[in-house]
């Protein structure tokens, strides 16, 4: 029986520490396991790409060996942003592809995001890969698969430039945080007619300047400073693998992804009245009424890119987004999360205005906290911790308790959320309200629930 670190098999990807939990042997076994699932579905070819992490080439070599030894042909698209791998999978491999990426995790992490036959592997499908490995239930092919290569960027660029048309050229700043999006962002936005100032667009897996995670305000400080000291009108920032977008106005205001989704929803619904728009449990409570007001149907979903994609398919939704910065366009695009493309759609909308910042600042806004994390004791299962807390939780004055992903408690003047992260051993909290007083009141109720577990410590 093959052995492999079980804890790298997460809710919606595989991720671990290179050389410790994620080894070259593990990559090879994972390749064989994915190939076994692919063969069972009649899939014969898989697109394979990697981000700019230092461990990428070696992991790519080993997972590719697992594929070809199992009879699967590999289309190697090289170093690309994750959405470019998805694009290659859809255009060239019938919706099957694997991206080697650690996303926004520290440099010593890496992992795999996986699609087979147009479906993102998540939850039980990822656990099935572990079972295949532990039971040695690999495919026994008659012949080995073959490896071929393709530069997918020209086709990706041409497809976007073919339908995104700006009303006027914009001056922008693009900050890739030395992640892989930096290899493509400047060329892409210049092709649309923009004047682009590039920040940290040299791909460097050590991430020497700041962490490539636009969800954290401190990582947007360089964009804010750049806007202040130049004539650039808007700032875009990307995560390590280019599937998430951060947005900053000329005045240095961060437009969080749930407010970005308002702008995108208004645009999509203007052409598609009645369409469904999906958002995750962390999003602002102002989003659902905004979607209704603009003629759409709001759908709340649990957090996680694979859950959102699955929900989009089930609901036939044209647009979706989550608070972490993943935005999914099915209208005029393919339905996968793509930070680079989301930036294009944003610029298309803003190019109709002489003052892009005013358009963004006019979007409805409440008082809210950023994501707050509570570290869990070693070996804890976050979902079990939440389940236990929920059993005796009391929330005075609650209008509604939503339990699709942790506990989101709605009040007449705000909401509080606590849920287990699917990627790290933490509980995630978020609060929003009409006033500081209301936020304080809601937080105190959650504090009482959290502190009913003596191993947990209130972080505020």
From TrEMBL:
SUPFAM superfamilies: Phosphoglucomutase, C-terminal domain, Phosphoglucomutase, first 3 domains. Residues 7-138, 156-252, 257-364 form the Alpha-D-phosphohexomutase alpha/beta/alpha domain. The keyword Isomerase applies. GO terms for molecular function: intramolecular phosphotransferase activity; magnesium ion binding. One of its GO terms (biological process) is carbohydrate metabolic process. Residues 371-447 form the Alpha-D-phosphohexomutase C-terminal domain. It holds the Pfam family PGM_PMM_IV. Gene3D superfamilies: Alpha-D-Glucose-1,6-Bisphosphate, subunit A, domain 3, Alpha-D-phosphohexomutase, C-terminal domain. Belongs to the phosphohexose mutase family. This is Phosphoglucomutase/phosphomannomutase alpha/beta/alpha domain I family protein.
